[in-house]
Amino acid sequence: MRKPLKIVLGLVLFLALLVGGAVLFGMYVTRQLPGQEPVFDTVRPADPGQVGEKGVLIFSKTNGFRHESIEPGIDALQKAGKKKGWDVRTTENGAFFNDDYLRRFKVVVFLSTTGDILTADQEKAFERFVENGGGYVGIHAASDTEYSWDWYDHLLGTHFRDHPLFPEHTPEAEIITDTRTHPTTKHLPAKWRKVDEWYNFKQSVRGKDSIQVLLTLNEASYKATLPKAMGGDHPISWTNTVRKGRVFYTGMGHTNETFTDPNAMPHIVAGIDWAGRFE
Ligand SMILES: [Zn+2]
Predict the structure, then answer these.
(1) Widest Cα–Cα separation across the chain
(2) Least enclosed by CB within 10 Å: which of 29, 178, 202, 273?
(3) Which helix (H) or strand (E) holds 250?
(4) How many Å lie between the centroid of ligand 1 and the Cα of residue 141?
(5) Cα 247 from chain centroid?
(6) Burial class (CB in 10 A: 0-12, 13-18, 19+), 264
(7) Which helix (H) or strand (E) covers residue 11, if one does?
(8) Cα(40)–Cα(50) distance, integer angstroms
């Protein structure tokens, strides 16, 4: 090949890598796939009819990354619900969020939802639901959801920041059980191990009003080189209260195995029981 041609090809390759890198970095920062615009729902799904005493709504709408573990999660929660006497319903329709439908449920589970998924009216309906005593359970990417809804950030106490990519995406880590007197942790050992995509949050929720930390990651137990972990204090499950409503969040749930894990699954099930005041 002639030298000038080599130089041109080299330049083209260099520019392509530069542009590709910039696009990938932009997607990483904005947590959006290229060209992805949020899709909102305005038409209500079918009326849920009468819902049992222990109504649990699983909401798994995604306007960003979609986790493979959503379907195994739904299956596992439906099975657990059968044993527990919950009436489990599922939806990915944001228009389900209206006073009439929501009031028939005790708990709404955000199962790895992502992105901006509710309209302003739907958000208001959910705020009323929780503040009047409804339960919220957030699993994994529930914190990678609704960044500009201030009330929701207040409910969680923080938001997703990033997660390890290098040297491992889903390392095994040691989890420290902060309290074993809470119904969601009394079955857990003082220290245990699990594989997951360990979320870093914008800030630690420890010490915030009304928040109780249940589980904390031992950052020394796994390697997070890129991006770095949270700098030592790394709560991974916690509760909150918002007016009369109970809030339970866990960062676990990226992997399908979470929903058969002998420690994590009962933790989540007990979180639903606790948020719904079922036990
Ligand atoms: Zn994930």
Answers:
(1) 78
(2) 29
(3) strand 245-250
(4) 6
(5) 13
(6) buried
(7) helix 3-30
(8) 26
From the list 94, 100, 184, 79, the residue with the least C-alpha distance to 137 is 184
Among positive and negative, which fits the CA dihedral 248, 254, 257, 262? negative
Return d(Cα 216, Cα 86) in angstroms, integer: 29
Q: For the full predicted model, state whether its pTM sits above 0.85.
A: yes
Closest by Cα among 161, 162, 193 to 177:
193
Distance 130 CA to ligand 1 centre (A): 25
Tell me, in angstroms, the distance from the centre of ligand 1 to residue 53's CA. 32
Give the separation between CA 213 and CA 158, rounded to whole angstroms.
13
Q: What is the pLDDT of residues 44-67, one digit of tens each?
A: 999 999 999 999 999 999 999 999
Nearest residue to 62 (alpha-carbon basis) of 95, 42, 78, 39: 39
Whether residue 257 contacts residue 150, with contact meaning beta carbons closer than 8 Å, is answered with no
Task: Locate 144 and state its tokens.
Answer: 């990678």
Distance from the alpha carbon of residue 279 to the mean position of ligand 1, in angstroms: 30
